[in-house]
Design a protein that fits this description.
α2 runs parallel beside α3. By secondary structure, the protein is an alpha+beta fold. The longest helix has 19 residues.
Length: about 200
């Protein structure tokens, strides 16, 4: 069964200053862009007045982005992201905060510094693992709610969102090995009235 690894909880590392510049590495679990924004907001409040807040994230669906936040292009965010990819962790967001100490490090020095701080956080974080999941959405009439609840509860399925309107719309995360049986049973129990759509 395919397994993914991700951080269990946030962690902060504070390596020794480099030529007067202080660096802080703050790693947090993250599964949505809202999680990223919230983490950035917390870090800016926790460490106000820093020169740069450089970051990168990687989600289990393959999306990943990095940000140099004013440092020379590709000298901060991409090195952080390379360390995340090298670790094999997903659903992770790392912010490396720099307080400039008066001495320029050069592009090479910045690449090493940002990468090393991210690497330290990744080495020290507690890791948890779980089976890989596929995200899908289903829409159904209200009269099918009881049937669909029963099918969902028969499998290892996480309900991410549920919206009640003219009909019911659910976003689910289904363990990969349960995906085909779940879809087959859903089709059988609803006489083909519900058609799941993958959202990954």
């Amino acid at each position: 069964m395919p397994i993914i690894a991700m951080p269990a909880a946030p962690i902060r590392v504070e390596p020794a200053p480099i030529k007067g510049s202080r660096f802080y590495g703050l790693l947090s679990p993250a599964q949505t862009e809202e999680d990223i924004k919230a983490h950035l907001h917390r870090v800016r409040e926790e460490l106000p007045g820093a020169t740069h807040y450089c970051w990168a994230y990687c989600f289990e669906d393959g999306r990943s982005i990095s940000n140099d936040d004013g440092e020379p292009t590709n000298s901060a965010g991409p090195p952080i992201l390379r360390h995340i990819h090298g670790s094999g962790l997903v659903n992770v967001h790392i912010i490396v905060v720099r307080f400039f100490g008066g001495t320029k490090l050069g592009v090479g020095g910045l690449i090493r510094a940002y990468g090393d701080v991210a690497g330290q956080a990744l080495r020290e974080v507690e890791v948890i693992s779980r089976p890989t999941r596929t995200r899908l959405t289903i829409q159904h009439d209200h009269d099918l709610t009881g049937i669909i609840d029963g099918v969902i509860h028969s499998y290892d399925i996480e309900t991410i969102t549920i919206e009640w309107g003219a009909d019911v719309r659910r976003e689910l995360a289904v363990v990969d090995e349960s995906y085909a049986p779940f879809v087959d049973e859903l089709n059988e129990r609803t006489a083909g009235r519900v058609r799941p759509e993958e959202t990954n």
